[in-house]
Every structure is written in C-alpha cells, then in structure tokens.
Amino acid sequence: MRLDHVPRLVRTVRHLRSSQLWWRTRYLVERKLPLLPGRHTSAVPQAVPLREEGVPWIAPFHRLGPTGNQAVECLLAGDFHHLGRTVRIGRDDPDWERGGAQAGRLWQITLHYHGWVYDLAEAAVQGDARALPLLQHYLEHWLAACRLHKVGADSLIWNSFAIATRLGWWVRALELLRRGQAALPPDFILRWQHSLSRQAQYLSHHLEWDLRANHLLRDAVGLAWAGRYLAGRAADRWLKLAGELADSQAVEQVLPDGGHFERSPMYHIHVLEDFLTLERLVTNVPAQRRLRETCLRMAEFCRWLRHPDGTLPLFNDGAHGAVSLPGEILERMAHEGWDVPQTMPRGLKHFEQTGLLAWHDNPWTLFWDVGDVGPGYQPGHAHADTLTLECSFQGRRLIVDPGTYGYDRDDRRRYDRATAAHNTVCVDQADSSEVWHIFRVGARAKPLGVDVIPRRSGFTAWAAHTGYDRRPGSPRHARQLSVEERRVVRIVDQVQGHGCHHLEGGWLLAPEWQPQQLASGWYVRSGTDALRIRIDTQHPVHLSIEPRPWHPEYGVERNTQRLVWRCQHTLPFEMVTTWEPVG
C-alpha cells in the first residue's frame, strides 16, 4: 500500500466495530493455519439423519436465469446463464472457474449459489427426462472438483454467503424431488446430503461477523434451511442459532420507518425475502413474532418504493432483475395471508430514518436520497450519491441512476459509485463520499437540515450534506426540491463556502428520451411527452449533452445521454433547474 493511501484506510476502518476487526483477523489467520476448529469435518460420505416432518415448502422468490425446458437446453450445451450473461463452462468436464475471467466475480460466485440445481430438479418433476441425469452429472462433478481445500475456494465456492445461498437451493431441490417422487441413485443422494451437512457445519463456524448486514442475515437463512432439513443435535443448534440471528438482525438492520439500513432499494427487497423465509423456517416463537412485525413494516416501505413501471429506484448498489419487483413481493405476501395493501400510493412520504423522500402523483413520480450512505460499520453497497434523485414522468422513466454493472475492481465500478455519474452536484471532480476499491468507503457525506413541507398540490423539501467540508474552502452543497402547481418541478442547487471551485452536475436520461440543446437549458421528448428544462443562474455555466453508459441490470450496459452543466466559480453559487411539461 502506498503511504499516501494510509489516511484513507484509517478513515475507512475507524468506523468499524472492534468485533469486525477481530473476526476478519481470525479468518485471515485461519487461511494460513488451516487446522483451526471448524475448518475440517469428515470428507467421507456418511448417512445423515433427516427430520421426519420434512421442510415447510417455500417457493423461490426470484430466479436469475432460464427455467424449465429452456434451462435444460442451456445446460445440455454446457451453457450457464444468469445475471444477463451466458458462459460456456463445458458439459463433460465443466470448468467451474471459467466465469470469473469472462463475466466477472459476481457472475462466478452466483454460479456457485446453485440456482441451476433447483432449475433441473423442477424440470425433472415437470416431466423432462433429461433433467435428472444432467443434475446428477453436474453436481457429481462439482462435489469432486470444488472441495474446501481447492486453492481459492474460500473466497468463492466456500464463501459463507455462497454456502448459505446454496444450502437454500439444495434443500428446496431435495424437497421438490422427494415430493415429486423423482428417483436418484441412493449413493448419490447420500453424497449430496453429506455435503449439505458438511457445508452447514462449516458455515456455523464462519458466520460473517466481519461483514454483518445482509451477509449475516443470509448466513442465518442457510442455517435455518439446513436445520429444518437435517435432524440431530448439530441441526438443532443451527436452527436455534438461525432464530437468534433472525431476531437480533431484525432489530439491527430494519429502521423504525421500515427501510433497510444499507439504504439500497434492491437490498431492501433482498433482505425482506430473507426475513420472509426465516419467518417460515425458525421455530423460535418470539423471533417469529418480531419477524412478522418487521416484514409488515418493510412491505409498507416497498409499497412506496416503485416507479409506475413497477421497477425499483437504483440508489446505491442496485440492479433490475436481481430481486422480486415490489409489486410481486406484495402480491405474494397477500396471497400467503399477510395483511398488506398492494395499491400504488399517492402523495408524499418521507422515510425519515432511511432518508428517502417519495412522491407519487400525476404526472410525476420522484425519489430523493437525503439519507446516510449506509450503516457506519458497513457502507459496502454505498455510492457517493447524496442528494441524488430519480423520477418518472407520465409513467415513463425519465431521470435514472447509473445503476450497478458488477462487483469487480474496474472502471465500471468506479463510474457507478462516482458522484459525477449521479443526479447531484460534484465539487472539484471529487466524490462526496470517499468510495474506493470495490466496497470500501472512507470519509462519508452526512445529510443536514432535512426539511419536508407538504403543499396543497405538491411539496417543498430541503437538505444539505457535509461531503465536501474536508476540501479547501469547505464547500457545502444544499438542494431544494419542489413539485409546484402546473406540474412543474423546480430544483435549487446552492454551494456555500469559500474560494474558486470547479462545479458540475447533470441529469442521466433514460434511453428513450431524446434531448435537444437550447440556449438556456434543454428540451427532451419521448413519444408524445415532452419537457423543457430551463437553467437560471447569475453565473456563467457551460451546458452540454454527453453520451454516458447506463447499467440497469448486472452485466448490462446501455447507451444513453446526460444533460451536463459545468462552471468554474468563486463561491457562493446558486442555480435553479426547472422541469416544465410542454403541451
């Protein structure tokens, strides 16, 4: 590490809990000293006891690739498809590491979640005779090739989050095959169940106390699946631990307003799916009660958390197609007997603890991020996007977040997290929060003075943040957002402080909108809808329309355009942007 990066590292780790540092150190030492407890269990297949009552049936919430006959066709060719990409890893002798080089780390670790095992089990139960032999072939090969002692296995294959997710797909697949009376060779089933038990044992000794947040919750889900499928003292311990984790994490991770503390709409859904699963699996009655109350609060948050097209805003890390849509999860909850409204709300909602403002009315849907970047000890999914916004007009996505392409240390990751890529103001070409590496954050922007005032036919809201206080002249960005009569949206950006600074901002358009440069702003059109965007300021600013990438899904890049303004000016600075419908 370079010496000039040490202060950034200090600004990053000073927010961590001491327990996180202890657990991370323990796991790092374990990799060097592999004889520590919990790393080794018997590799010789042994019969494992199963619970006589079976497992509660919990259908998958969301699938990341093709299903049914289409899944079988892909896998017959040696093609694995998920997260928008197809990679041929081979059929006869699969290369379980090939995806990392071709499609990135996220694609490869998702391969080891084993959603494809459930896909093949489902196809077999539905009558596709090719599916069971294919399932046995691939899983036999994986069990032999992806052992714990394989070099690099700790970070991908035997990564705790991957194990926990895999346990869920495996138990679902085994239960589906049992109910569908689909026969596999007994010796293969024994090896499969033994590996399941071994992985649960390993997981129980490698809970992600170093990361916490959604990772620790997923670990609980994995233990709950294994604890409800297997019998015996170890399985009882896993189930008890899962209940304790579910109870504590419901308190720790879900804010009083129902939002998830990582402040990512996508991870909010992801976590809600896990809590709903745990509510069905754990046997701890007090934990079940807390989980029900938690899920109801999270569901109400979901109800506000959708554009007219049904999709999520993509604040912080987020991608379409990676989790259930808000409407889908609300519909499922209602079908399962939960008392949750499904209708799209209207009007204004300020989620104060999460720091999210939502407005739903004709013709505007607006989401404004006025919250912390995430929990202090785990902002890994944060972007430097404080005071950014997304909106739809007349039911069409208009201003979009750059999204998240993947979790590799590359230019796309840096772009997706950068302040300059978001719909806010960037000072001196620096990020408002010090995002670096893949999931790290040093200094963080802190929102200030958030104030929301409802009006008769709209609202006015105001917020500022401290993200640039550390820079010379202590520039401070403040923004006022208003929905006014005549369907006009007005945004006032101010930068207070001292000295001359480079200021820039702009608006990333959804690809279907076509912009045109005007003398004092822009004109945008999509089909029969059009808006005039007017810039009013006493300071000379340069306006432009520039091509930009948009990452609406993992592994997907689309070309779009950004309305950009820039200036070099001595503070203070103020600019008003007015979005006015035409016609």
TrEMBL record:
Subcellular location: Periplasm
InterPro entries, A to Z: Chondroitin_lyas, Hepar_II_III_C, Hepar_II_III_N
Gene Ontology cellular component terms for the protein in this record: periplasmic space
Domain Heparin-sulfate lyase N-terminal: 90-321
Keywords, sorted A to Z: Lyase, Periplasm, Signal
Start and end residues of each Heparinase II/III-like C-terminal domain: 344-565
Main location per the UniProt record: periplasm
Gene Ontology MF terms in the entry: lyase activity
Cross-referenced Pfam families: Hepar_II_III_C (PF07940), Hepar_II_III_N (PF16889)
Keyword match Signal: yes
Protein name in the entry: Alginate lyase family protein
